[in-house]
Give the backbone structure.
Amino acid sequence: MKRSRLLFSLFFSLLILTLFIFCACAPAGDGGNTDNGEKTYRVMVTVPEGATVVGKNPVEVKAGESATFRITVGKEYVVTGVSDGTFDPATGTLTVTNVREKKNITLSLLHVGYDTTVKYAYFFHGTDEDTTSEDSGQQLFAGTEITVRAGDTGRLFTGWSFSKLGADPSVIVSTEREYTFRLSPDLASGGKVDLYANYADTNRLYYDANGGTVNRGTKNMTTSDYYTTSVSGSSVLVTLKQKYLDYCECASAFWDDGTFRRDGYLLKEYNTKPDGSGESYSPGSKVYHVTGDGSYLTLYCIWEKCADAGVFSVADTTYAAPSGVNPNYIPEWSERGVKITGYTGTLDTLAIPETIGGKKVIGIAAGAFRNASFTTLLLPRTLEFIEDGAFIGCSSLTTLYFPDSIYSVKNAAFDAATYENFRHFIVNATMAPRLSDTEWGSMSLKLSRLLASMDQNRIVIVAGSSSYQGLGTAYLERLLDNRYRVVNFGTARTMNGVFLLEAMRHFVHTGDTVLYAPENSAYMMGERELYWKTVYLTEGMYNLWRYVDISAYTNLFDAFTDYNQNYRYNRAPTSYEAIVNRSSRMNKYGDYLSPDRAHYCGEAGAPKYYDTYYVTMNERYKSKDEGNWKDEANQEANKDYTDPNNKTWATITDPYYADSMNRAIRLVRATGAKVYFSFCPVDADKLVDEARSAAHFAAYDAMIAENFAFDGVLGSSLDYVMAHKYFYDNAFHPNDYGRTYRTYRLYLDLCAALGASPAYGLRDVGTTFEGCLFETGEMTPAGIS
């Protein structure tokens, strides 16, 4: 027993001795100890050809301390990376800090082919918002890697260059907002390297008379507070002032006031190409003047040669100035001139001259162009009236260029045969705008936002005043994390909504989402008979008329005459840039503003509420014959929507309306954009009695989905019915409380359509509507179950 214990003790002692010897002999870099018992680790550097480690390698360091190596690098090499630690090219030092394990470090090199021991002075020329990984003005070794990033300056970034851009865009080396390069001899000049961040000046636009001449004395050239002009030969430079650009992103094309002249020709349009093969713009329309390559946009005058005077018969005529109109408002008016009474020409494109026999052409008589064979007709800007029956049997007509200054022209000027193939109606501004400084005349601001975002994904809301007054554009953009530009194309309930929707096909593309959110008006749901307000609201954006098939609509010329005679001629001339003056009632997003909107309906300070609308939430919408919505007695007398003889109501599922809507919807969908139906906000107190159940709303939602060709229906109509206190002056106009709730509800529905999860609550990103003090509870519309 004693012997066994002795053997066990001997075995245990030998085991302890063996372990001690093993630990003592183990390499310290693998986790050994120093003489005083401190842990040490081995650190080794591996370098490729072109570099040498000077001194001890590997080294042993105590736990938590640093390992330092001196490395020489060949003149034509630069260090591009190390697997651990940091390398200082100025001293050739590789440092690894806080070593707590064995390390094998790899150094990576790049052969650049030039001497990297030479230093250059680096200078960065950019804006305060641009950033660079190296300070400007430093002396840096050749081969130094530098990263720069262009900031968001509010101007168009056009790229990086190592010399001033000037007029040669070929010096641009990259158009990416983030750019990385190495200092090299080929970039240096005089011992320094200059890098430029280039931005396009977004305040300039050129016109080229393109065979014509420039008249320096016109209103376009002399009367604007929002831009300056300078002339060089046949070219005009327009420089927009900042107070305009702060509010509107697009220029307005000069209206045709004779600024550009060419004897024997009419100004047909402006175009981005001198041969007319580029983008066309009507005089008086919005134009996005910023080009993608940083150059300045030039609009070329496109001319059409006038027919020889010998093909016309004319008679002297007198046409008195409109009664009650201030003569100062219509300085171009001519009471005496000639009217065309006959035409014997056979031109395919007919441009009627402004003068014949030295006298202005101010009228066209009945029968003057009977059975004429032209396909394209251009009317002169001198024209003041067209008599009924002037164009009879002109069945070849497809395209009409129409000056907006014609005071009198009725539908009856063109017969059914002339309308047969008529498809393209081009409106040119030939008189100064009258409405730009008014609430309704500033809708072109919305087109400006649309044009300025053609390279972005957008949410475009097409609707009446329930969106103009009931949407918070900036709020919705923040809720969507600014991943989409929101364009609030809310206008008026009595605008022909199908016209506006159809025109959108020219501006939207794959990645865009169009929301159609009409009020209960047949004008917004397929009415084809054009109303004067559609003409009224397009002043300043006449290009919209280019993008609709005019044969799908009726009442064209009566609508224009109503517009001119009753709403336009008796207003003082202004300028398209006067849209800026609406900034107190419309923000730069196109949203309506008013300080009295920060009140609950009925509170002191809130406006009068017109108790007129009766909202059905079914297929019966107010017709074009509804009458004045502020006429409470008339609305009350005609509230029975179930009476088939009541002409103030229309059935939107009728093919007359539904086919019109579906044609426009399909045209927009063909662009690749998604088109959804969205519900407008509705005052719960104005619902008819039958519309006070969840089942009624579900049936309404299904009716929209089944009868119209939308990609889908966002949410439910019930979601947009809000309590009376959230409204402003009628059943479709939310106050700022209702506007915020409606916008947030729309955000939730958009998230569902876009396949995203809502990231924010109602108040998380700020509503921006000053004065709105929201209660803590959510909305509960009364009477809906």
The CA atoms of residues 513 and 754 lie 9 Å apart. The chain has five domains: 38-111, 119-200, 204-305, 309-324+332-428, 440-754. The first helix runs from residue 2 to 25.
